[in-house]
Design goal:
single chain; alpha/beta; Rossmann fold; 2 domains; nine-stranded mixed β-sheet; about 35% helix; about 15% strand; globular
């Protein structure tokens, strides 16, 4: 990232970062290359010149269609894909399909494992406690938000020898795209965003007040389709209040953990899968009905944060700028008693993170103290430069999903109005997982929108 001073953040101009390609493969109509980069842990610390600054590894996988010769591929422009999260590693593509099929016609795709995820110096219950104290762990985690991810991207772009490149941000990746437009717009040719226009200001409470209402409406809609599932959900909740049930990893399944299966409600491509999950919830045993092994195994994959603890640790911080979140989702839950785990009928929840996650999920228990420190942290740095966004000149387009339960459309439209030249496609045809539903069409539409603006500007 070029040296700048914006919203009290500075980054230092640095020498090119070490970079190597570990392996290349070709299969199912595409070629891949595995890129590793060494980047500073803290991009914003003053340069010391002694070479002692801590570094981390960032991994990214390149995907190119085999329809392009090697020489042709070398001439293709880069498209950086910024995954949702926080805490989600880049997609591992088995073939080019959906949005990636559309993108690979014209781009070399770079799939980034954002720092702390996948192969990018991963953070979990085993690695984070290597930092001796919870305070040291919290200080370390300050460097794993969108501002640092964007700074990584700029060093990676330079290491690859790319000029300004295109970015495609899904969900939290869209939040990162807004940070990119704020602090490193010179590195961008164009920006595409799906389901990821973050609030630029305000408290996380505003987000959760909006999304709790969206989730309640989605519960009503779902149970109108599957009224028998209303009875099943109530029966499961009643059973869990009276009977101990344990997941295959030995952790408890409580009514509040069961509510987390509401993650299915956030998508068009996944929502009906909730019905299939619930249909074999119970099995008859000599001691009466119990939850089936098949059901428990599936639920574990939904409620455990073993694979992505950063989601629980940093989720609320993606909204934090200069103030503590103070377990925002948990506090706003108290304003919505219909979502309490003892409420009848039981409502399923969305993406909110609660303090009890760090008591009931074995993968998170070792991280409980640092989670509380992060929730209490008041000096989070700004993630957006409002002045820069208001003067934005990078062609940008965003898909805003009207009924999105994760990124509220009303708040998204406020953000869109604050970014000069940002084109919005507002639609009720998709939910948060739109790019899994019809990614090829969505990508093509957004790319056409930014290219029409770029063409008009150049004429």
């Amino acid at each position: 990232m070029a040296e700048r001073d914006a919203s009290s953040q500075t980054t230092q101009t640095r020498t090119p970062v070490p970079h190597f390609v570990k392996a290349r493969h070709e299969f199912r109509g595409m070629r891949t290359a595995e890129h590793y980069f060494t980047v500073p842990l803290d991009h914003f610390a003053p340069a010391t010149g002694d070479g002692a600054a801590e570094t981390i590894t960032v991994f990214a996988r390149e995907y190119v269609s085999s329809a392009h010769t090697q020489d042709e591929a070398e001439e293709l422009p880069w498209l950086l894909f910024l995954q949702g999260g926080p805490g989600g590693r880049g997609n591992r593509l088995a073939s080019l399909s959906g949005w990636s099929k559309a993108a690979a016609r014209d781009f070399r795709i770079l799939m980034l494992d954002q720092r702390g995820t996948g192969l990018s110096t991963p953070i979990d219950r085993n690695t984070l406690p290597a930092r001796d104290t919870a305070e040291a762990q919290a200080a370390y985690l300050e460097h794993f938000r969108a501002d640092s991810i964007v700074a990584d991207a700029e060093l990676i772009r330079a290491a690859l020898g790319s000029g300004p490149w295109s970015i495609y941000g899904q969900s939290y990746g869209g939040f990162c795209a807004l940070t990119y437009l704020s602090f490193a717009p010179d590195g961008l040719k164009e920006a595409l965003i799906t389901g990821g226009l973050a609030p630029l200001a305000g408290h996380a409470d505003d987000v959760y007040r909006a999304t709790f209402a969206r989730v309640a409406a989605r519960n009503t809609e779902y149970f109108s389709w599957y009224p028998e599932d209303r009875r099943t959900v109530n029966a499961i909740a009643s059973h869990l209040r009276q009977t101990e049930e344990f997941l295959p990893d030995g952790g408890p399944l409580t009514a509040e953990r069961f509510q987390m299966v509401g993650s299915f409600l956030g998508g068009n491509t996944r929502v009906d899968g909730l019905h299939y999950l619930l249909e074999d919830a119970f099995t008859e045993t000599p001691n009466g009905d119990r939850l089936s092994d098949a059901f428990l195994e599936q639920v574990q994959g939904i409620v455990s944060r073993l694979a992505n603890p950063l989601y629980a640790l940093l989720h609320e911080s993606i909204y934090a700028q200069g103030q503590a979140t103070d377990w925002s989702g948990w506090r706003v839950l108290q304003e919505n008693p219909a979502f309490r785990p003892d409420a009848e009928p039981l409502l399923l929840t969305g993406e909110m993170v609660y303090p009890w996650y760090f008591e009931q999920d074995a993968a998170l228990v070792p991280l409980r103290q640092v989670a509380h420190l992060l929730a209490a942290k008041t000096d989070w740095k700004p993630l957006y430069d409002h002045t820069q966004l208001a003067a934005n000149s990078v062609p940008a387009a965003a898909a805003v999903y009207q009924d999105d339960i994760y990124v509220d459309s009303s708040l998204s439209l406020v953000t869109a109005a604050a970014v000069r030249g940002l084109q919005v496609w507002e639609t009720a045809d998709f939910h948060h997982d739109g790019i899994a539903d019809d990614g090829e069409a969505i990508f093509g539409r957004l790319l056409g929108m930014v290219r029409s603006v770029a063409g008009s500007a150049g004429s």
